[in-house]
Structures are given as C-alpha cells and as structure tokens.
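Journal club prep — side note

Before the paper discussion, L.F. wants everyone to see what a predicted structure for a comparable chain looks like in token form. Sequence:
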Amino acid sequence: MKRISYLFLLVFLISIIASSCSNTKTYAQLLDDEQTLITSFINRNNILVVSTFPTDTPWVKNGKDIYVKTSSGLYYHLINPGDTLNHNNDTIMLKYTVVPRFKQYTLSLVPDTISNWNTIDYPYPSDFTYGDLTQSCKAFHEAVSYMKRMNSEAKLIVPSKIGFNANMMSVTPMGYDLKIKFQE
C-alpha cells in the first residue's frame, strides 16, 4: 500500500513538472515579447519616437505625438511643462519630496487600467524622495528629472527593466499618465 502511494505521488509530481515546463519562455523571449508589445502600442497610437528632446510645445509633429526614447529605454512625452512663472522656486532638486498622480495601464490591444492613483489632495499623500532610487521606480525618477516643474504632466511608456518590481518580475511594460507636485 505504501508503495502505491509513493508511486501515485511520483506520477503526480512528474505530471505537474511536465505541464509547468511546457509553457515557459526564456527571459530573452519575454524581452522580445515585451518589445513587440511596445512597438505595437506605438504603432496603434500614432506615436513618433525620436532620440532628442523637442524644443517646441506641444510635442506633436504631423498629427503624431512625439515621444523621446532615452538611453534607459524610457519613452517620454511632455504634455504640460507645469508652472513656468516661478522660475526660481519651481525647479525640482535632489531630495525634494515628489507627490505623483498617475494612471497606470497595460499596453495591450485593449488597455487595462490597473490603477488610478490620485493622492495629491489627500491629507497624507503617497510620495517619494527624488533621487532616492529605493523609493518608487527608476522610470519615475528619470521622468521627474525631465518634468522639473510643479504640476508638470507627461505620458510614459515604461519597459519592465526600469518599472516597478512587480513589472520587472513579470517582464510587463506599462503606460503611465503622470502629474507631479513637490516640496522641499
């Protein structure tokens, strides 16, 4: 009887291992899938990708939104440069507290809004310290460095390698609509 139980358990474990191995992809294949998804999103949304930052606002050319692809892989599109009247007091510096408002969505054919985080007006808003990469994701820190001003708004396409930990682990690129406020 004991042998039959062991045999049954062994067959069960082998079947689980065999079924789980049949659907796995290598990390390289997952990265290829991620890039395909990003490219598809760019094509579907009439986006023009460039490597230098435009000087004119709005960032549109021939009816296409202009996104800058940075060396880290971040795709960045400035919507609103923010408060430009107070040039002295309104440029972000390292160690400032940043309060983001963002909508996070997938890049799939039918985007799925994963979270809509609007804590700017809360008594205790969620925040992160600009420059402290242990807080938030690398992409947000990089985007904030380009946004620079209070109430600045941007759209981001974030590859998994510079996104939040959950997206890194699942190799899932995400899109963000981001608005920032900050304080010293």
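L.F.'s comment for the group: The helical segments are 2-21, 27-44, 138-147, 165-170. Keep this in mind when we get to the figures.
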